[in-house]
Amino acid sequence: MRDDYFQMFVDNFGEPVNRREVPASSVEKYRFKLPDALLGYWQSEGWSAYADGLFWIVDPDQYSATLKQWLSGSEIEHVDNYHVIARDAFGSLYAWGERYQRSITISSLAGGIVALKSQLQQRQTNPDRALGIFFATATKADFDFEDRMGNPLFERALAKLGPVSESEMYAFEPALSLGGRADLDGLVKVDMDVHLTLLDQFRR
């Protein structure tokens, strides 16, 4: 049975699609590292996409190398041991720290890491509640990307390019950091791992 937090999330994002069962070994691997509530979502919901692929609950193992690359040399590289728990269609990664139970965001297209630095080393006293609030208060706008005129791109990208698969993301070519423009004409579907590696190199 879904808790109230996750039910609010589903009310906003719809039922899951592209569902993949989570092995019991993965649940045990992350026990005592990620919130029990998240492991419960894995067991009941699987690793799945929502809202036509706008938002995904993911296997942290698939993103560990990419996350390590993005954190390398940053101020928060050694603050905690972070694990990616979710991603969006534009390649942003949402990670959770196992020591302090705080979240960070890798905003890949914007080329930065978003974190509340003042709280990163303050241990979260109720990780399950914090995780639940992350889902319950999420809106589709939180995971969309705006064009240079301030208009959301996801629905238009979906209509033009079709949904992204588990290994894909929407990206701009050329990349924004190389002078690309944030508009629909420059948006393409790309392999996520490859493109996130390139974006990390471009920002250094």
TrEMBL record:
Residues 5-108 form the GAD-related domain. Residues 134-202 form the T6SS immunity protein Tdi1 C-terminal domain. This is DUF1851 domain-containing protein.
